[in-house]
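hey so u asked for the seq, here:
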Amino acid sequence: MISTLYLIQFAAFYLWQVTSSSNKRSATTGLAAYAIKNKPQARSLGGLLLLAALVGFIFNWGVASGIIGFMVGLMGVGCLSVVIDPFNYLRMQGVAAIYMCCVLLEMTI
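ran it, structure tokens below
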């Protein structure tokens, strides 16, 4: 469950990162291209995803721990997105592989 919440946070942060005014790169396909063409919708979707992740963290861990877990996760996925995105490592297959590894670890630990 926590891995899914972090994936939701990652998607929301990535939508906001792609639609920011400091983004100089252009995308031709995928989620980034849709987000660049439809900035208001992408930002709204990103906000809703962040809100859903926050509610999920609060539901799992309680109010204070949920908010702090959300903030720590947001810093983590933000750092990951900012560091990895310029190298074009963020493809759907890579994100899915990382997510599946995290879910398997979460289930076994």
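The chain has one domain: 2-108. The longest helix spans residues 39-61.
lmk if thats what u needed
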